[in-house]
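**Tokenised fold:**
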Amino acid sequence: MIKPKLLVRGNFTAEDLVVSVSPSNLVVLDSVKKDIDQIWESKLKEAQEKNLNLYNGISYRLNSLKEENGKIHLDFGVMDFKTRFGLREALPKIEFDETMYRNGCYVGATVKTSDSKYLMIKLSGKSMNRNSYDVLGGVMETNIEMSSEYIFKVLHAELKEEAGIEESEIKNTVLKAIYQGMYTNIGFYLETELFISSDEISERFELNSDVDVAGIEVYSYEEYLDVLKNHNENKGLIYYLVIGK
């Protein structure tokens, strides 16, 4: 586990991003590959025994990030879930440097409703996510075409899947920060405002089809800050982003 750190911070729209996809520059030692195989087999067994959702999909990882001429240049590679999961447990067993960081990408958002409430999700425990509560968002997979709007489209898809929020109900979304998380993944933190109220979202959750989500949690601003502050270190970083420090 490493200390989370900000890589870039601001108020970014799709027009501020220049994206590309290249072969992954992740370094995985042969000895680590063997460890990953064993870890994955163990995860599959655990998932089967506990009836958890686990599959070896493909997600994006960040190859590089640079700021140039007022733009954020992001180059992505791809990585399977098996490697993404396995490296979390395999890396602490060896001496490793930044070339071996997972850099697996995910989005997470502060979602503010029209009645000035803040949303989080309660997880069902049916996925391999180890949190009980989380911000809305998810892994950046390859099922959406890569473009300058990709990060925003991923979040909007997650808002629909997790909370039934339609894109037409989103007032605005801004990319506020990109950070290195405590388990060497890359978080894209966004802030979203909605046209709809927390009551509307709570009422429609009965129609939710995402088996990984057990419920929608609704907080006041102060309650939301308290949850973030007392969560893990990644959410602690988001806490400081929310309050503007």
